[in-house]
Amino acid sequence: MVHQLINSLTDGFLLGFVYGLAAMGLSLIWGVMSVINLAHGPVITVGMLATYLLFVHVGLNPYLAIVVVAGIGLVLGLIIYITAVHRVISAPHLSSLLATFAVNMIILGIFNAVFGGDQNNIDFSLGSLSIGFLNVTYSRLLAAVGAVAVTVFLYLYLYFTRTGKSIRAVANNREAAELMGIPSTRVLALSFGLGSLLAAVAGSLISTIFPFTIFSGGPYELKSFVICVLGGLGNPLGALLGGLILGLMEGLIPIWMPTSWVPVVEFGLFVFVLVVRPTGLLGAK
Amino acid sequence: MRNWKGKIVLILLAAGLVLLGCGQEAPKPQAKKASEAKPEAAKPAAEKPAAEKPAAEKPAAEKPAAEKPKDPAAEAKSDPPAKAGEKTVIIGFTSSKSGKFKTEGGRQINGLNLWMEQVNAKGGVKLADGTMVKFAFKDYDDESNKDRVQELYTRLINNDKADFLISPYSSGLADASAVIAQQYNKIMITTGAASDSTYKKGYTLIYQAYTPASRYLTGAVDMLAKLSPKSKKIAIIYEKAKFSQDVVNALKAYATSKGFKVVLFDGYDKDTTDFAAFINKIPPKTDAVMGGGHFADTSTLTKQLYEKKVNAKLFAFLVAPPEPKFAEIGAACFAVVGPSQWEPAAKYSEEAAKAAGMTWFGPSVQEFDDSYKKKYGEDPSYHSAGGYAAALILQAAIEKAGSIDTDKVKKALDDMNMMTFFGVTKFDTGKDNHGLQAGHDMVYIQWFKDPKGEFVKKIVWPVAAASAKPFVCPAR
Fold it and tell me: How confident is the model over A97-135, as pLDDT tens digits?
């Protein structure tokens, strides 16, 4: 029993970092421009598919592909911002919600037409690490390491570079930032790009652990929402914390209950946090 | 003005209802009614083209009449006319061209298409009155979706005038379609569908080509007992779906009756990709891991069991292992055992049929294998063979009945006891399990590594059909 508990906790914990990374993208976009990005899921899928295609057709190591995928995510985010989000950024929330939902449908439609609903699997097995009874697959370990590395980069970028500081300034108070001479449009576009970058990288990491279909981004988008609410919307660190909590829950719950109960408990928690502490664990007061 | 428009809509609705009602009872008067109704329906639309509703409904009302000359099957369904000639029988089915059954469903359709190409190339089937019957397929994509299946089969029967039906792939979808077939009094051969429960519902026109689920993994238990007589513990991880639950419930009962202890019996939801929670639950020193569901989840489960270095003497899973594509998971496929409805190395032959005292029908295993490879450039899997076999069973029944009349073909199916390249076909005709496959048997394959380092599957069980000896899975 103890063995099972530790194994499950480790698996859940490692996966939690990747969940956290995906949620961070959503959280960043919300924090900077108060847009709920419903195209988050498809962007995660873009990350998965790009990694898969690079692996299958170019033979690129999926872990190296992450760099390329990050670039793709950034560019895609910029394109989505310029074409769909910028015009509705100051409009009521429903407009941006609908705009990003339209992007979501467009991307999924294209994927369905081009790739179909088949399951894709990156056949890149690294085996597993065994320490006594503890057994962890390297793919999970590396995904967690990758997620942590990206989080550290994001932190350094936001706190120690000029553009990073402008992003934080715009998130804090857009009008004041504009008065200080910060080009807010450019900063907003960049933030959206960064959010997409995080989603795509998370997708890329997920694709090294699990097989996926073009619809696989959807569940992670939902998880991201739960995580953001849990950790506090707009706070990247809260997202990471929320991700870890969710990952641990997914590891723990199936020990005592059938796995079908996992989403019930997850969304139960979602509602509970909304009622008891609407700002989330690390959210601003 | 509004009243006038409303009247048109009402008239159209009434006409539509009359058409619908007739369509289900007798096709002949329906065609007549349709042509009567047509001017009525077309008139208001012509008078007022701007009126949206009549214009939109017009094509629908016109359709049956317009289709009539193109649709010889509609005539063929009433008593066959005396004149000898050619006739086209329409076989309707839905196929999972998208969604999660794409792989298996696609292969099944390949098999069906190959059958049609071959039977039509030979000039078709000769009926008792000398009419040559050719076959045509009518199919839709069901998106692997149960709700779509019922809607589409109703459409196949009512709009497309299908004479016979073949089920979609998977027990769940086939079960959904069987209701419709029975309701409309159409014979359906199910294939790619092994669940037993469909045949316990009192249907009389549904016939199963596959070995039923209850006999799917029981052979693996026998195999384990023979391979490693000291084995005691079996862990069962299965997909929560109709078919796999039928299989594992029968498996659990059988294993317990043979003195094994089922140490884990846990189901996962469809579309599960993370099996860590289940794998962590497998108790140490488990002798065998069995179960699975469909292709995608089972191959993922197998891969994760390998990555997690789970050791057991035997891994036996549903559906995925016999698929050639299973080798794509690499080293994880090694030593895995899977039940297969059919394998290209199966030893069914005309001589075997003679020895067993039954008739032989259709191409030899070799002929099927060769023609399939030639047409599709890949090895046939049991899904492909199952598709072909379903149509072959129907062909055999029509030939024997010498008619395409539902009652006569049904009698031929009830009496059937034949061997084809697919194996034995014999149906349970008892009241409780009518249509359940009673003759066909599973073969078990295991994945070997050939000297070149490539993974190949060989038949290892039952001993009589085996081309290689089964082995215990080495430590991982």
Answer: 999 999 999 999 999 888 877 788 887 877 788 888 888
Residue B469 contacts A where some CB pair is shorter than 8 Å? no
Q: How far apart are CA B260 and CA B251, in angstroms?
A: 11
Closest CA to A107 of A192, A46, A30, A26: A46
What is the pTM assigned to this prediction? Answer: 0.70
CA distance linking residue B324 with residue B382, whole number of Å: 10
On whether the CB atoms of residues B402 and B377 are closer than 8 A, the answer is no
Question: B192 and B225: one domain?
Answer: no
Picking from A128, A133, A205, A246 by the largest number of B CB atoms within 10 A of its own CB, the best residue to mutate is A128
Q: Which of A123, A209, A255 sits opposite B329 (nearest CB)?
A: A123
Find which of A128, A259, A262 to mutate to test the B interface (most B CBs within 10 Å of its CB): A259
Same domain, B58 and B17: yes
Q: Is B267 on the interface with A (CB under 8 A)?
A: yes
The dihedrals phi and psi of A208, each to the nearest 5 degrees, come to -80, -15
Cα–Cα distance, B162 to B404 (Å, whole number): 12
B334: containing domain:
215-340+442-465
The tokens 């994880």 sit on which residue?
A: B332
Every domain of chain A and the residues it spans: 2-216
Work out how many domains chain B is built from and give that number: 3
Give, as one character, the DSSP assignment of residue B444. Answer: E
Point out the residue among B99, B273, B277 whose CB comes nearest to the CB of A210. B273
B274 with A210: Cβ contact below 8 A: yes
ipTM higher than the 0.90 cut: no
Residues 45-104 of B with CB under 8 A from A: 98-100, 102-103
**CA gap A246, A5 in Å, rounded:** 16
Would you say residue B178 lies in a domain? yes
